[in-house]
Design goal:
This protein is mainly α. It has one domain. The chain has helices spanning about 1-25, 35-40, 45-75, 80-170. α1 (about 1-25) runs parallel beside α4, α2 packs across α4 and α3 runs antiparallel to α4 (about 80-170). The termini are far apart. About 10% of the residues are buried.
């Protein structure tokens, strides 16, 4: 009896620990929180269905095998031990795999949100780089224009000095 209780406690603790570990941190790479509404909007059920079908079949096969071993030693003509073991094992395995499918769908939705937000941040960074490059190009153009104007001013001042010098000389 103690072994059964211990096995049930072990299975339940594994299920609860797995759910807590995967859903604990709902933040993107920038530290902004991810709401459950966003996750639910992107979450699908493809892994849930796949895990339920595959896990159900696997659980049925494993529990049927274990049930047949138990039934051999029981010598029951109705094969009650076989069907009880198969039913309980299949139900427990199906519940576990359905849970794992939900967790997988949830985690994929969170990763998709993180990826989208990261792409949004990289777009903003690219736009900022482009804007800075435009400002630098404008700055270079204005500096060249100023140098040209300074050169023109210097030439005009020299021409003016020469003209004044000529007027004095005359």
């Amino acid at each position: 009896m103690k072994q059964k209780a211990l096995a049930v406690i072990l299975v339940l603790s594994l299920l609860s620990l797995n759910a807590c570990a995967n859903r604990a941190l709902l933040k993107d790479d920038a530290g902004r929180p991810i709401s459950m509404d966003e996750v639910n909007a992107r979450k699908g059920n493809s892994n849930l269905i796949l895990f339920a079908i595959g896990g159900g079949a696997l659980s049925f096969g494993a529990s049927f095998f274990i049930g047949s071993l138990v039934d051999r030693s029981a010598n029951d003509p109705k094969h009650t031990a076989l069907w009880v073991t198969t039913g309980i094992g299949t139900a427990a395995g199906l519940a576990y795999f359905i849970h794992q499918g939900r967790v997988r769908d949830f985690n994929l939705a969170v990763e998709e949100i993180r990826r989208e937000r990261l792409q949004g941040l990289s777009k903003k960074l690219d736009e900022e780089k482009r804007r800075r490059e435009q400002i630098e190009a404008e700055k270079r153009r204005l500096l060249m224009e100023r140098q040209r104007q300074e050169e023109e001013r210097r030439k005009l001042l020299e021409a003016l000095k020469k003209r004044k010098q000529k007027e004095k000389d005359q």
